[in-house]
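Regression check, flavin mononucleotide case 179:
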Amino acid sequence: MNILVINGSPHTRGTTALLRDKFTEGAASVGHNITTFHVCKEELHPCTGCNHCRTTENGCIYKDGMETLNPLLKNADCVVFVTPLYYFGMSSQMKMVIDRFYANNTALRSLKKKAVLLAACGDTDSWTLDALYQHYLNICQYLHWEDLGSIQAIGMYTREDIENSDYPKAAKILGQSLV
Ligand SMILES: Cc1cc2nc3c(=O)[nH]c(=O)nc-3n(C[C@H](O)[C@H](O)[C@H](O)COP(=O)(O)O)c2cc1C
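Current build output:
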């Protein structure tokens, strides 16, 4: 499978980076091709709802990092969303990219894809990631993408927290399990 990892964390050595590394290690070990798009390293603009993409043949008015991401998205069999929890949702960097899917909704909804969520948060309440997870599931439902699973790492404020947890191992197993 062609796996596209969309990394929505600004931290290169943070908690979700370790989940991402272990997941890709597992997926690569069973022969998948992995491409990673680091949202925070790209020049990207938030959707302004101008509807240029709907009213012209020229797509989004912004010709930015999405020009790199769009063909990767089109070719991906599986899209992996990697995000820290920011105020009970995905990072604004990740949300910005997903909003930009709007310019290609029809194509994205008609292409058969699978999806995975890798997320981490600091608090330990069992419900902390519920809204983010539900949001992810609704996105999958809308796009007609099949959810292949998630790692929801609760109580992981720091890199040290997650290094001392079982979540990296679970992320590797999830990567290995993809078919
Ligand atoms: C702006 C911001 C908002 C956050 N909001 C939450 C939150 O609502 N709940 C929570 O448990 N942790 C929250 N956190 C903590 C992060 O989710 C947590 O430290 C995560 O492991 C960071 O992932 P990263 O190292 O991959 O960037 C927040 C952190 C930041 C910087």
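Comparison notes: Strands lie at 2-7, 33-38, 78-84, 114-120, 146-153. Residues 126 and 146 are 25 Å apart (CA to CA). No diff flagged against the previous build.
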